[in-house]
């Protein structure tokens, strides 16, 4: 005969119901913990990141390994032209890119209407004045031909290096997008030759000097011994960064991507690859 409690309940059924409820509650609790710990992207999430070909590919191999530990798979897409990574990102051909500084992106947005935003800094490469023919800036002859990058942001940056070195003077109030039209003093009557950023360093033998982005200087076989002037690092606005399409900046994979770059393991590889010519900027 089944015993009943003072409230008239079947204690056998109550016990079974209580045990079942406890089991369900336990499962829910465990499941809830699993959900809370898991990233919001799938474990096999793969993203494409546009980078520049060359030394940065070595750095991004380490970034890729760090991301894999966090459940994010990275496929890098290497470009040889600075104009391509943003176009690829805007079209959705890559999910992120990492190659540019803010003045460059601002100009690209102005020109093309891109919807691209910065999400995490990577490094800074102080731009410098290089020459194979002279030991100091003072040695540059009258009429010297000096190459500079021809894209607006880097040309303005290069002209400021020349101004700080005393080669030219720009008119007061000139912004970061200075051009040769802004030169108001040129005591040595130097000729400024505008060339593609990827070519200017490789043209050094045909020039008296050239202002070259550090990454391209390395690719062109230039070293610190060839550099006779360099921009200041303090307060430098030209820190490179990882960028994504606007609207994606708060996605969980973006935070994982940035964390996969901004760590000591990647910094060690960065320092090894760039030998002090580039500096971590986060």
Please, could you describe this protein's structure?
This protein has 282 residues and is of the alpha/beta class. The chain folds into two domains: 46-125 and 237-280, D-Maltodextrin-Binding Protein, domain 2 (3-Layer(aba) Sandwich), CATH 3.40.190.10; 128-230, D-Maltodextrin-Binding Protein, domain 2, CATH 3.40.190. It has nine helices and 14 strands. A five-stranded mixed β-sheet has the order 2-1-3-13-4, sandwiched between helices. Helix 2 (55-69) crosses helix 8 and helix 2 (55-69) runs antiparallel to helix 9. The N and C termini lie far apart (75 Å). The relative contact order is 0.18. It comes from Rhizobium leucaenae. It holds the Pfam family Lipoprotein_9. Belongs to the nlpA lipoprotein family. Keywords: Lipoprotein, Membrane, Palmitate, Signal. InterPro entries: Lipoprotein_NlpA (IPR004872).
CATH architecture of the largest domain: 3-Layer(aba) Sandwich
Tell me the helix content: 25-40%
The third-level CATH topology of the largest domain is D-Maltodextrin-Binding Protein, domain 2
Rounded to the nearest angstrom, the radius of gyration is 28 Å
What would you call the structural class? alpha/beta
H and E string: HEHEHEHEEEEHEEEHEHEEHHE
Query: CATH class of the largest domain, please?
Result: Alpha Beta
Largest sheet: 5 strands, mixed
Distance between the termini: 75 Å
The number of helical segments is 9
Strand percent estimate: 15-25%
Count of strand segments = 14
Name the shape in a single word.
Answer: globular
